[in-house]
Design a protein that fits this description.
It contains 8 helices and 11 strands. By secondary structure, it is of the alpha/beta class. Helix 6 packs across helix 7.
């Protein structure tokens, strides 16, 4: 049984999520506004949060910002009718782990929740020592989970780091979105998502000298992505 907090002000939707998640064996609590969501996150320490954005009293962006500024690394799945790329990018930049747009497929949402809860660390110690890579001004050390630019640490969200490692371990080979979803998010192959694209944009913003013209994290048209060392 895993603890899931649903922060959603639509009573019918919140109750439907609660019932379906409970049916899957989880312990679920519901908060109906942003302040209550933060309070329950502090008191109950959930293992996953499903977060609406358009909330009374304190919107979901501010809830997410506050959680991350407090150093809380609980996985957050944003569930919102705000569907623009600007909103999705803002959500990921504030620390969302996934973003689902309303109206949504309930089976897909439950699959995403299941994947987030069963996720294991993507990086392990290599035989004979920790893996380390260098590209451009960036050094990545799997032993410490450290990412440095010119010797200075760069803060990556856990999913961003895992995505970077997945690309590095392909040694320049192309990875499709489905392969990256499976490697990092452990999704079923038929789950379609823009999640990878959003995280790639964030990696470029943090690691490339010119994110608009990347030289390392490259798009391969109609195929996926690769990392050029």
């Amino acid at each position: 049984m895993r603890r899931i907090l649903v922060v959603e002000d639509n009573p019918g939707l919140a109750e439907g999520l609660r019932l379906n998640l409970a049916h899957d064996g989880h312990e679920v609590r519901v908060a109906t506004d942003g302040f209550d969501g933060l309070s329950q996150a502090h008191r109950w320490d959930p293992e996953l949060i499903i977060l609406d954005l358009m909330l009374p009293r304190l919107d979901g962006f501010e809830v997410l910002r506050t959680l991350r500024e407090e150093g809380r690394d609980v996985p957050v799945l944003v569930l919102s009718a705000r569907a623009t790329e600007t909103d999705r990018l803002r959500g990921f930049r504030l620390g969302a782990d996934d973003y689902v747009i309303k109206p949504f497929s309930l089976p897909e949402l439950l699959a995403r929740v299941s994947a987030m809860l069963r996720r294991r660390p993507a990086v392990v110690q290599a035989a004979g020592g920790a893996e380390q890579w260098q590209f451009g001004r960036i050094v990545v050390d799997a032993g410490t989970h450290g990412v440095l630019r010119d010797g200075e640490p760069i803060a990556l969200r856990p999913r961003e780091y895992d995505l970077l490692i997945a690309l590095l371990r392909r040694e320049g080979r192309v990875a499709s979105r489905a392969e990256l979803l499976d490697a990092v998010w452990q999704y079923e192959p038929d789950v379609v998502s823009r999640t990878v694209d959003m995280h790639i944009l964030e990696l470029r913003r943090k690691l490339e000298d010119d994110p608009a013209h990347p030289v390392h994290i490259l798009t391969v048209r109609k195929s996926g992505y690769r990392l050029d060392l």
